[in-house]
Amino acid sequence: MNDLTSFIRCEGNQVVARFRTAAAAMGRIPRIELHGKVVSAASVSFSIEGLAPWFRLGARLELQGPGDAPVAGEVVALRDGLATALAFAPLEGIGAGTVARLAPPAALGVDASWLGRVVDPLGRPLDGLGPLRPGADPRPLRAAPPPAGQRARLGPRLDLGVRVLDAFATCRRGQRLGLFAASGVGKSTLLAMLAANADCDVVVLGLVGERGRELREFLEDDLGPAGLARSVVICATSDSPALLRREAAYAAMAVAEHFAETGQRVLLLMDSVTRFAMALREIGLAAGEPPATRGYTPGVFAELPRLLERAGPRAEGNPGSITGLFTVLVEGDDHDEPVADAVRGILDGHVVLDRRIGEAGRYPAVDVLRSLSRTVPGCLSPEERALMLRARRILSLHAEMADLVRLGAYRAGTDPAVDEAILLAPRIEAMLAQGKGEPGTVEAAFAALAEALDGA
C-alpha cells in the first residue's frame, strides 16, 4: 500500500511539473493580435477592412490615432466585406491605414460610491473629483427588460413632490411618464424639483445632448447639494458625437438598473428622449438606413421601445423599481411630431408643458387638461378621484368661456356652472403654482385642492 501511495505521489508530481513547463512555454509564445485598417473616412464615419469574419454589429473598436489615447468606435453596418463604424470622439488625425483593433463589449462597473458624481456615458468622471471606484460586476449598457410575464405589478402611489403632478397626474412606483414640452418652458426646473422632492432612494439623471454651458448651473442652482447627494448624473453635451449622445441614454438606464436590482426605489429622469432619437437618426443615416418620417430612420422607432421598456418594476420578488420620467422636446410646439407620437404610445401617461401658461407666470407650466396618467384609477380613493374630476371640469369650462368673459359677452348669473368656474378656476391655478423649494405629498396636494374648491 505504501509503495502504491509513493508511486501515485511521484506520478502526480511529474504531471504538475509538466504542466508548469508547458505553461511557461506558452507564455513565451508571441501574442497574435487581430486588427484591421481604415480604408476610408468621412466627417463622422469610417470604413475598415481586414476583420470581416470577426466583425459584428455593435462591436467595439479602438483606433490608434496620432495621440497617445486610442479612439473608441463602434461598428454600425457591414457591407461587401467592409465594416462601417462611428467614433466616440472626433476623427481628426484618423486616415487611411490607421490600425483598428477589436475591443471588449461596452459595460459599466457601477458602484454605490457613484452617488453624488457626474460621469460621461463611458464611465469617466466629469466633475473633477477624481477617479470613480468601479463596481465588482460590470453591467452591459444594452440589456433586455424583465420578462413581461414575470415582471411585478406597479407599486403604491409615489409622492413626486410637485402639486400639479401629484393631484392631476398621480404616479405609481415603477410607472413611466413623458414630459412633453418645447424649449424654454421650464423642463429643467421641473426635473430639478422632482429630483429634490420625490420620495425615492436614488435619482439617476440622464442628460442627453444638453448645452454644456448649463451643466454646472443646473447642478449647482437647480439640483443643489441635497439633490445631487442622492443622484448619479450621466451627461453627454450637445457637441458630443452621436454615439456618445446615444450611449448617455443607455448608460443612465444601466445605472438605474444596477440600483433597482439591489432592491432600491430609483427615479430615472432623462432629458431628452428626442435628442436620443436625433442621435439614433444620425447613426442610422451614416449606416445607410433610408430616411422615413421627417428624416428619422426606421431603426429609431424600433430602438425607442427597447430603451423605454427597461424602466418599470423589476422581476417578481424584487422590491426594486425604476420610475421613469422622460422629457420629449416637441419641435415647434407640435405634439404630434413622430418621436412625441411614438413615445406617447409606449409610456404610461403624458404631462404637457404649455408655453402660454409659463408666459402667464404660473410654474410649473403644466397643462392639466392635456395631461394624463393611465394609472390614476388604481391609486386614488373615490373622494380624491371625485375632487380631481370636479377640478378638471371647472378648468375645462373656464377655458371654454374665457374669451366670452374677456370680451364682456357673458353676464354673471346666466349659468351657475360658469359662475362657479369663473370663481374657482383662478383659485385652482394659484394652488398649482409652486416654487423650487416647496416639497409636498399627494395627500397635501389633494388637501390644497379641496381648500381651493371650498366655498363654491
Automatic annotation (TrEMBL):
CDD domains noted in UniProt: ATPase_flagellum-secretory_path_III
Keyword list, A-Z: ATP-binding, Cell projection, Cilium, Cytoplasm, Flagellum, Nucleotide-binding, Protein transport, Translocase, Transport
Domain AAA+ ATPase stretches: 173-358
Annotated catalysed reactions: ATP + H2O + cellular proteinSide 1 = ADP + phosphate + cellular proteinSide 2
Location of region: Disordered: 129-152
Compartments where found: Cytoplasm
Any one of the GO BP annotations: protein secretion by the type III secretion system
Cellular-component GO terms for this entry: cytoplasm; type III protein secretion system complex
InterPro entries listed in its UniProt record: AAA+_ATPase, ATPase_a/bsu_AS, ATPase_alpha/beta_chains, ATPase_F1/V1/A1_a/bsu_nucl-bd, ATPase_T3SS_FliI/YscN, P-loop_NTPase, T3SS_ATPase_C
Database matches in SMART domains: AAA
Domain of life: Bacteria
This protein's record includes keyword Protein transport: yes
Record-level Gene Ontology MF annotations: ATP binding; ATP hydrolysis activity; protein-exporting ATPase activity; proton-transporting ATP synthase activity, rotational mechanism
Gene3D superfamilies: 3.40.50.12240
Main subcellular location of this protein, as a coarse class: cytoplasm
Alphabetized PANTHER family for the sequence: ATP SYNTHASE (PTHR15184), SPI-1 TYPE 3 SECRETION SYSTEM ATPASE (PTHR15184:SF9)
Name the UniProt record assigns to this protein: Flagellar protein export ATPase FliI
Taxonomic lineage: Bacteria, Pseudomonadati, Pseudomonadota, Alphaproteobacteria, Acetobacterales
